[in-house]
TrEMBL record, chain A:
Location of the protein in the cell: Cell membrane
Membrane topology according to the record: Single-pass membrane protein; Single-pass type II membrane protein
Entry coiled-coil feature ranges: none
The protein, known as: Biopolymer transporter ExbD
Amino acid sequence: MATFKKKTKTKQDIPTSALPDIIFMLLFFFMISTTFRESELLVKNSLPQASELTKLEKKSLVSYIYIGEPTDTKKFGTEPRIQVNDVLIEPDQIVQHVIQEKDKLGEDGDKITMSLKIDRDAKMGVISDVRQKLRDANALKVNYASNKKLRISGM
Amino acid sequence: MIQKKKKETPEINGGAMADIAFLLLIFFLVATTIASDKGVTVMLPPKAEDVDVKVKTRNVFNILVNSKDMMLAQEEQVDLPQLRTMVKEFVLNNGKNKDMSESPAKAIISLKSDRGTSYEMYISVIDELKYAYAEMRAMYLKIPLEDYQALDKENPDQKEKLTRARKAIPYKVSDAEPSEIK
């Protein structure tokens, strides 16, 4: 007599075919909401918090300056330094940098916005030096990058 | 009886797809940042030869911040919420009190910081001043603060409101050169 093989009806594996879709969704979210790092940070950069923020409107007209304690303290010391693009510079070089940035923009050069990404532990001394140089270079619109602080109304 | 053979549907093994997507995801996580394109916008004064502008002392509200992040407003030691109340009182004085501003349009806030003042403190003070002005403008337009903050520059009707409020209560903060404050 032939033996009948018992057929199991239940499948043992969990269907995972939807997993890639979920991951792709996550991927697209990250692709849309993030931007590539413009430059490798050589300075510490944790932004302060403020509540009265304005959004930078034209991204193409924005140029960034980073200020903070160098990450490589052995090489550069602990004093706050200024970083533009990928190099650390001295305050005196800022005028030159701004002129270069303005040249890149061509006609819109005067509409340039300098976004200062300054570490919250930096001191005003170096910042005011930078500010003076920006005035010299006639880049007057300045944005102090900060993170959103929530205020409890009535406070 | 011939058993009907179940036709097998050809299937592509999609198990590796998740791995590929994960790799891409991780690459984007590492290589990109969530852009923080928001901040406190200020206009620096243009570089000018020393122009002596005569301003009546009563119209100037003095704020000093020293290197220990202590704040002095009109020669009184204050903290941030106190500062906001004082600024509002000072600007909206409209000539009542002889020691305070003549009108909101004439009131000037002078902020002086030390070279050793921390940036965090400086931003907090600027933020507090902006907040005070936003509150005053909202009050001027007789709308809640949230509505004022939601006003949109692109909308002509709302822009008119903004300009009106800005004209009535202009934000005049003079950012004096940091110096060594004892």
